[in-house]
Amino acid sequence: xxxxxxxxxxxxxxxxxxxxxxAGRLDLVEDAxxxxxxxDTKDDGGWRPLHSAASAGHTEVVAFLIGPSGGDIEVNxxxxxxxxxxxxxxxxxxxxxVLRVLIEAKADLLARDASKAxxxxxxTGRGHAxxxxxxxxxxxxxxxxxxxxxxxxQTAFHVACTMEEWNACIALAEAGADITTVDNEGNxxxxxxxxxxRNQLGLVEKEAEGEAMQE
Length: 215
Hints:
This protein is mostly helical and 215 residues long. The protein contains 13 helices and no strands. The protein has helices at residues 3-6, 16-23, 26-34, 49-56, 59-65, 86-93, 96-104, 119-126, 131-139, 156-162, 166-174, 195-200, 203-214. One of its GO terms (cellular component) is proteasome complex. InterPro entries: Ankyrin-KH/SAM_domain (IPR051631), Ankyrin_rpt (IPR002110), Ankyrin_rpt-contain_sf (IPR036770).
């Protein structure tokens, strides 16, 4: 089969490799690449095969595509428009194994989508309990990473509070996130917490100390 045939596109401008990656068919992915399929081609939505595989949670396909046999595809490539990377898709969809593979491949933990949200923002907003610790552990060596702000000036902790993802709030606070953060509108994330959680995170004590200093 010639390269031109293997890269023929459907009505959504998806190639056989796109469809195989989205379906998790590693055998067909391998076959398409052996036949000379273009690995970095984009469909109508600006998605590459890697994005489709990561979003659908197909770990083996993702690992193959970013490995030497798959052509060492750029792990930080972005979808046109949304700006999402494979890592952001995996975090947003809660695909822990895919996330680990991408982190091992040195995916950019601080990559931002069109809304300036990172993978941690997306995982936190969706309440993915298994994903948040993986990202936190990977990000411990990056100074200030817990304080990255999205387009609304919100950190991951702020997003967790806004979405009432209390376990995420606790995990981020215990990891060292700034629990006194405010967004672009001056809204304090901590004010969304229940009294019990505020006490658990030490906010009640800190506020009492602040009031005492003002007296």
